[in-house]
Amino acid sequence: MDYYFIYGKNADGVVAGMRNLTGKVPMIPLWTYGYWQSKERYKSQEELVDVVKKYRELKVPLDGIIQDWQYWGNNYQWNAMDFISPDFSDAQKMMKDIHDRNAHLSVSIWSSFGPMTNPYREMDQKGMLFNFKTWPESGRDVWPPDMNYPSGVRVYDAYDPEARNVYWKYLNKGLFSFGVDSWWMDSTEPDHLSQKPEDLDTKTYLGSFRKVRNAYPLMTVGGVYDHQRETTSDKRVFILTRSAFAGQQRYGANTWSGDVNSSWDMLRNQVPAGLNFSLTGNPNFNSDIGGFFAGVYKRNGGAKNLLFQELYVRWLQYGTFTPMMRSHGTDVPREIYQFGQKGDVVYDAIEKFIRLRYSMLPYIYSTSWEVSENNSSFLRALSMDFSSDKKHGTSIMNTFSGNHF
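Predicted structure:
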């Protein structure tokens, strides 16, 4: 095993050393620093496009809209990377409707495939699929899972360069060729359910899964990044993903903190989580604005619940100063019009901070260049700039956004 010692005169020097060793941060598209709307999940292309139309009607800025899972149909068709569901029957029109309104689409893709998909069939034939259980376990879309109908979903061997080629072949044919703008690579750990000790002995292209499993997100994210760059230079790569490994910053990927609960404690935790993540050399971090699982708020009025409204607005304010400003969650829809209308205090607060984000775009994009060219960071712990301040320099609850904010 090789060990590396990275010396720097300060934290920025160490971050620079880490990136010099594991890869520089590429510039990502300007539009990705705008506002993103998402939820689990839009159930038809009409619903998805209507969100974009409504934002344009309200004249509230919006750059990214995200389509979560099951646009492919049932769980046996899991991650077909194709608009198979009849609810998404005219993907070309959907893309045109979104692009004509100057918005961009990101689509959820996974590290696993259902047995009724073309990627599964080819990878299974070539021995590129793992055998351990992953999510979803049931072929039926019910909770808890009905194990009388196992899904047969399996994870692909992202360590195998040929498997990464196959992955991109179907991703390019089924989604990228339609004009999809960026990728939400979910479950890049990958999801590994009902884990058994012997599962870690699963053979991968690079040896046992036990030996290389932490690097899985690096391999699968890198595969998509490299293949898109090889396919075209007309569109910069942007990837949102749930897990990361050292060096993943070189693939233009932004990592979010996962499916967290909607609570004040969880909002508080996002601050040190983002700062610590940034100190590893990967500058791109975000979280589900409002928290993913709304829980008790769903049962008590959802977006009309005053307590949820306050939490959501505070989370949105935090998200305004992170590299990706993205509203997402289950249980409670988060579109601005769910919180009222113009003139309502919560609606106005949300719009105010979305507009603040856009007023900061010149600064944010300039900072993006500093990150790429000079190894700077978006999220800066106070210790990076005030290391000699014994009172405040060690705080993990205060942050800079770039070098000047």
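Summary: The chain has a mean pLDDT of 96.
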